Amino acid sequence: MQTPAALGYLFGSMMKSICAGVAAIVVTGVSMAHAAPPAPTGAHPRLFLDDATLAAMRQAANDPNSAVAHALSICDDVIANPSKWSSGGYQGIGFPAPFGACSVAWVVRGDDASGAAAVKYFNALLDDYGSVGDGAGGDAVVRHDSGYSMRVFAPYAAIGYDWLQNAPGVDGALLAHARARFKAWTDWYAQSGYHADQAGANYHAGYVVGATLIAIAEAGEAGADGDALWTHVVDDIFGTTMAEAIAPGGVLDGGDWLEGWQYGPLSVAEYAMAASALHDNGVALDGYADWKGALVTRSIYATVPDESGAFIGGDSENSKPYSAVAALTLYASMLGDAPTESKAWAYDLIQRRDLRSSTFPLVGAIAEAGAPAPQPFPTDTASTWYYTAGSQTVHTRTNWSADAVWMVNRCAPHRVDDHMFIDAGNLVLTRGSDDLIVDPSPYGSLSTLTGNAPTVASPQLPGSYQPSQAVWGDTSGVGYTWMRQTQSGVFATRCEYAGQYTFQDRASDIPSAVRDTILVPYGQGDAALVVIDDVRGAATDRPLNLRFHAPTGFTMSGDTARANVGGSDLIVQAPFATAGSPSTMTPAVGDCSSAARGQCEIGRFDSGEWRLEVPAAHPQAITVLDAVAAGETPAPATASSGQGWRATELDRDVEHIAVVAVDPGLSSVTYTAAPGGHVVVGAPQSATGRADVTAAPSAAGCDMTITPHSGDGGFDARPLVIAVDADCTVTEDPPSDGFTSPGGTDTPPGGGGNNGNNDLTSGCQAVAGAPSALALSLILLALGLAARRRRRVRR
C-alpha cells in the first residue's frame, strides 16, 4: 500500500463512485404484483407489440445489422429450405428459431409466405415434438424430462396465438385447439412440473414464461379456466414466489443466476419476457426494471479484463474456465421498462461484440426495438467492485484496463437444488488476459474439493458427503460479514460459512468457519492475494482442506509453488499453518460420476492443483498468492505471531505490507509489525465496527494496540486498513468512494452495485432504520422454504 500522500495520485482516478449510474439499477424495495387487475381482453396482439415497438421493428428491418434483419434472413431461409428446419431438436428447442423468425417477418412484412411459415410452426408447437408433422406432441409434450419442454412449447405457442390471428390458415378451430393445449400444459405443470415453485431454477423460469404468456394471450377467451390462470399468474407466481426472489436478498437480487451461466441466459430472458408482458398489460410490478438493469451490470463486472469470457458460477460443459456473455442475457436487460442507461450499455455490448441469438431471434427483435443509442459503460467513473446479494458473489478488479487484476469471491449457501456448486469461500483470479486461479469443477460436481473453496469434514454429515460442504446450507450461518475497498486499492472480504455444515434440520456441528481474502495491488499490474482460513471444530483426522487450481501445472521450489499462464505467473506460499505442508498434483479430467459426492477431485479441463491439509482441532492457515509478470520472483512472505494474533509480512515493489489475523473475542490486542500498510482482520471493535489504534516504536518495528472505540470516530475495523509510517504514526486508509461506514451491526451489503462501503443496505447510500438485506431474505425465504426442502434428481 502507498502512504496517504500517494493514495490519490495512484488510485484516485480509478476509484471514483458511480452512484448516479449504478443507483438507477439497484433493487431497492420488495417487489410484488399487486392484487390481480382485470384480465386483458383487448384486441390482439397483446404481447410485446405495442404501436411504438412495431414501428421500431419495421424501421429496424432496413438495418442489415439489426436483430430484426437477422430474424428476417432466418425466415427467408426457412421458406426457401423447409427440410433444413424440420427438426425439433432436443425436446423441441429447434422450433423457436423458425417460428420466431417467421412470426417477426409476418408482423413486420405482412407477406403470406412469412405468415404461412409461422403458422406451420405454430401448429408444430401445438402437435409435434421431434419434427414438423410427427404428431408426437400434444397435451403431454411439456412433460418430457419432468417439464423441461414447457419453456419451448408454451411461451412460443402463446405468442403464435396472439400474433398470428390474422395469418393464413388461422381460424376459430385452430385457436380453440390451442386453448385446449394451453389448459393441459398449465394444469399439469402447476401440479407436477419440476420446480414449479422454486424461483431461480431454470425449470421454474420456463414455467413462468409459459404460464404468463398463455394467461395474457387467451384472457377473456378461455372462460373460467383462463380467468383462473390469470389470477394464478398474478397473485401466486408473481405476487408470492417471484416477489420473494426479486426482493432484497432474494435469489435474483443483483442480476446473477445461481445455477450458473450455462443455464442463466435463457432463464433470465424468460423471466424478463414474463415480467414485461405483465407490466404491459396493466399489472403493477415493483423491482423488475431495476433487476433487468442489474443483469447487464453484473455481466460487465463478471467479465475478465480482456473481455474474452465471464464468470460462470455453476454447472458448465465448457472446456474453458469462462464463457462469453450471451446475447440473451443482454436482451433480457433491454426488455420493457428496463432503465434507459442500462439498455444503452447492453446495446453497446451487443454491437461491439457482434452478438445475436439464432435460437431465439424473436427475443432479440423485440429487445432491440426499444433500445436507445448504444453507450459504453462509464469505466472512467465506475466503481471497481460489484456485489450480487442473491448469489452472494463479489466481483472486483484493480482498475478498468485490459491489464487489470480481476477477482470473483463467493459466499453463499446452497439456495437452489440443481447446478449450484457447494462452494462458500470459492474464488478465482485473473491478471490481464491470464487466468491464474480457475474453478475447474465438472458438470454435476457435488464436491467442494473440485474448486477453490475451503472445507472440513463434518462428523454429522453422511459419509459420502464428507469432507465437503453440504447442500442443506443454513442461510443464517453463511454469508459475508463485511467487504470493502479502500483508496489505496486494498479489497477485503470476510466469508463465514459454518452454516454450510447444517444437516437437514440439525444445526452445524462446526462452531466457526471463516475465510478472509485481502487483495493488495502493487507495482505495474501485479497484486498479492492473502487468504486467511480459520476453522473451529476440525480434528487431526478431519483436517481443513485448502485447494487452489491453476490452468497449468505447478512447479515446487521448497515450499513455494509457481504456475505460468501466458505472460503471468501465479506464486503460492503458505507462510503460516497450524500443521501440514503444501503439495501439488494434477487432477484427472472427467466427471464425478464414479466418486462419492463429497470426495470428487476431478476437473472438467486440465489444471494444476496446489493443496494444503491442516490436521488440527483448530486449524489456521495464511496463504499468499501473487499474480505477477512471468519470471518475477516476489520476496518470501514472513510470518510472526503473538498472543491472539498471527501476521504475514510482504515486501512488494516499494511497499511493505502486513496482514494480521486476530482471534475473536479479544477486548484488546497488541501486535508487532514493520511500518507500511497494515490490514487487520478480526480486530477488537465496538458494536458499530469502530476501533482505536495506538502505536509505539519497538525493535521489530511498531507495537500496534487495538481496542474497541466508543461513540463516534475511531477507525473502521471491518477490516482495519491503516498506513503506519516510520515514526509509527497511524493514518486510516478510507473507503474508495469517500463514504464512511454507517452505524449498525456487521451486516453484508445488500443487492445491486456497491461503491466501496462495507455496510451498505443497497446501492450507494445506507437507509437509516431499514432492515438488512439478510434479514429480509430470511423472512421471505422462510415462508416457502419447507416446501422446497425435498431433494430432486439433478438435471
Q: Give the uncertain stretches in residue-range form.
A: 1-31, 738-795
CATH topology of the largest domain: Glycosyltransferase
* Cα radius of gyration in angstroms: 27 Å
**Count of strand segments:** 27
The average pLDDT score comes to: 89
Share in β-strands: 15-25%
Number of domains: 2
Dominant shape: elongated
Q: Count of helices?
A: 16
| Helical coverage, percent range | 25-40%
Distance between the termini: 47 Å
Output the strand order for the largest sheet: 7-8-9-10-17-14-13-12
Q: Class of the largest domain, according to the CATH hierarchy? A: Mainly Alpha
What structural class do helix, strand and pairing data support?
A: alpha+beta
Describe the overall structure.
With 795 residues, the protein is an alpha+beta fold. It folds into two domains: 342 residues, Glycosyltransferase, CATH 1.50.10.100; 230 residues, Beta-galactosidase, Chain A, domain 5 (Distorted Sandwich). 27% of the residues lie in helices and 21% in strands. The protein is built from 16 helices and 27 strands. The strands form five sheets. It has an eight-stranded antiparallel sheet, with no helix packed on it. Strands 18-19-20-22-26-27 form a six-stranded mixed sheet, with no helix packed on it. A five-stranded antiparallel sheet has the order 1-2-3-4-5, with helices on one face. Helix 5 runs parallel beside helix 7. The protein is elongated, with a radius of gyration of 27 Å. The two termini are 47 Å apart. The N terminus and C terminus are likely disordered.
